[in-house]
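Hi,

I'm pasting everything inline rather than attaching a file, because the server keeps stripping attachments. The sequence lines come first, and each chain or strand is labelled.
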Amino acid sequence: MTIGLLRRAFLLGAGLAAALSGAATAGEYSLTVDPVTVDTGAFTRTGIGYNGATPGPVLRFQEGEDVTIKVTNNLSEPTSIHWHGLILPFEQDGVPGISYDGIAPGETFTYRFPITQSGTYWFHSHSGFQEPDGAYGAIVIEPKKREPFRYDREYVIQLTDAHPHSGDRIMRNLKMMPDYYNRQQRTLFDFLKDSKEMGLDAALSERGAWGDMRMMPTDIEDLQGFTPLINGKSSAQNWTGLFTPGERVRLRFINSSAMTYFDIRIPGLKMTVVQADGNNVLPVPVDEFRIAVAETYDVLIQPKEDKPYAIFAESMGRTSSVRGTLATAEGMKGDIPDLRKPPLLTMADMGMAHEGMDHGSMNMSGDTHTMPDGSTMKGMDHSTMNMSGGTHKMPDGSTMKGMDHSTMNMGSSDPFYAPGSGLMPAAANGGKFLSYNDLRTQKPLYPHREATREIELRLTGNMERYMWSINGIKYADAEPIRLQYGERVRFKFVNETMMTHPMHLHGMWSILDTGKGKWNPVKHVVSVAPGTTLFMETEVDAPGQWAFHCHLSYHADSGMFRKVIVEGGPEGKAAALPVKTEG
Amino acid sequence: MSSSNILGAVLGASLSFALLTSGPALAAGSHGGGHGMHDMKIGKPGDPAKVSRTIEITMYDNYYEPESLDIKEGETIRFVVRNAGEFVHEFNIATAAMHEAHRPEMMMMMEHGVLEPDRINLEAAKAMQASMGHGMHDEANSVLLEPGKSGEIVWTFPKHADLEFACNVPGHYETGMHGKVKLSH
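And the predicted assembly:
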């Protein structure tokens, strides 16, 4: 996008906020949905934006405010806006076919809902592939109470993965040839190298296993060839945020990408994570963190030197990156680090490593370790652990033989990846990489209690036909998930695919089980790594019907999606439920 | 003194490690960084008889009131520190470098379950001491308090020093829980 458009987006955001001050309890906002030009420097194409720009404006709300948002559709096709992460009545949630009928061309739809939370969120179209085509913006909600941290200035850092092809064209290509956009195919040369390293039989058998899965070790990003952007700007266009040395700066990271996970670092600075998905967490100082699609993380930094610092986001598959700059004057540029070596998925990511686990890459630093089958090992007492022998005695009396201590990485192993996973994150500087295991909610939103029942959701897919599903059934053929108002449901995600899926439940919070009890973090997206089982619990406190899906655009569209119906609940709210049958 | 005050006073001592056995680098980092007691540059424990005034410090999540202190050179102050937040906080008088050296120790306490978000786990502290052989000793320049608890420090300030009061519970300093001590004639 051009500088002019970006500036305009910023001014519109500021203008809306200014118009609002003084009327904090009832704000009125207007958004137009417009065809726009996307200019990444690498390519130019038509896309979709808000108020004439992509990303759209930053909407600034106040906790406790009742907002009225008028959305005018200037496109020649229907549209919708979903307020990602906001807790609101289901008719305001903006999902065509579930919350409402959508917004027809030329129509103005008026959203009205109370703001009952604070933090960093975003909004996007929930129609077709308008979101990958540019239909997104940021939401910042100021809290009523003083925040548990101080900062001198703040910036929204909205990450996206602009693609030269339209979303519709990408989906057609993926359906036709699922590896259409995978530029990292394994070659005969790789096979010969594998044979040399592991022997011909082993290499053949591993190839066979991959073939059965219809996947390849390079299937980390099934959509490559995109240009990552920070606030609409590529590395060359260099988004810049100014600071005065010594100031504490809050960065509100939002991953609005269609398909891309990013690993984010600011070389030379520690980042202290203070919010995940809009909710305060006990602050965690880190060197680097991974942001799943649709997640948000707020970090505080304190750049002390009078020099440019690079905000560097590298795609998880290491096929591309984007650099923005924190600078003391316009025109400065942070250094762009080299892309790290692309990771390769391993047998562990295939879920094949349940037996004969490679303990060499096991996490020895956390207090709970999640096994691929979902069981947990609690309270490993490493103070008395004998690290010198070839056998390790577990707390339950069993032994793990032949631990290879030479390859053990005490600092970078993450229990939320399959042990031995090729995707195991590690900080570029050898320091601390954020794990879900580090997130503790600052203030539990609900009393901790036992879940009333468990629902298992196997994340499934057929890569060869580019079909993604839940429990082997795609959305079009699936019954809705029915929940009862007042219950606490424990969702068990079993990822049987080799891709990482950011699962997003609308309307109700997702309490991620990290084994921390009442301190478990409260999120709106939980990322499930290949070959792992992950649990989240939901207090079913929102009547109506909601969407529940993988937030990778092309996975959601091809069927990794469910409708959730909450039955019962307060009279007034439940009465608003349409009575028509589900389909 | 009520029982909660006694607990407060016990907990009031900053728990820090006299010795770290896990590696020479860590041990050097911790003790080389200097802990207040033996470092006269930051002042010394005060004589309660010589206290010139009492300053009340209220700890919230994660900030102090007041946010900075004006102290006369050589003055002896009684600090009455109250934790009005929902999390464990520390009030510690030292240089910025000393605070920085102290933070890995606090991180280790959190990792071993001694420091929980809203309580100090004395059982875990004992277990940690038993298993790791770490000694813990009291520090007169700091007080670590659970929510709702109060504690006191009597401190005599030096003539020249660049001091901060700070909370080194993991993440608290980094998010702004520290203030300047301005020393004047």
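Residues 23 and 83 of chain B are 34 Å apart (CA to CA).

If the labels don't parse on your end, tell me and I'll reformat.
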